[in-house]
Amino acid sequence: MDLPALPEHENRWPQNVYTAEGIISNIYNAAIRILRSNDAEPTRVAYHYDALSTEALPLLEAIESDTSPAAYQLLHDWLLVCARLIGEVAAMLKDISGNLHVGNAERANVIIPELVTLGHQQC
What we know:
Elements: H1 15-36, H2 42-65, H3 69-108
Helix pairs in contact: 1-2, 1-3, 2-3
């Protein structure tokens, strides 16, 4: 589930496109590592979910709005694939987050009984 590389362009893409693509890729890869780890904590999962939704997706939108019509034709499919992959990873993180919260709530509601000994009274 790697993000695709930027499509080839007859000229180089503007530097801000390369910079944004690098940031998006780093955020996405970090989120993938969290999904693959077995010890995800709720705070870390929430952090990576937020990074995808508040940083990666807005950067994709900025690339889309900042390109010329000719360049947009080249980027259109790349933007769609990236947005779909980021959305899928965000949905998986959201599911994990919900499961972690349920697991924590179940652990918090566990009552450990105290051992009680009964003494017999003689009448």
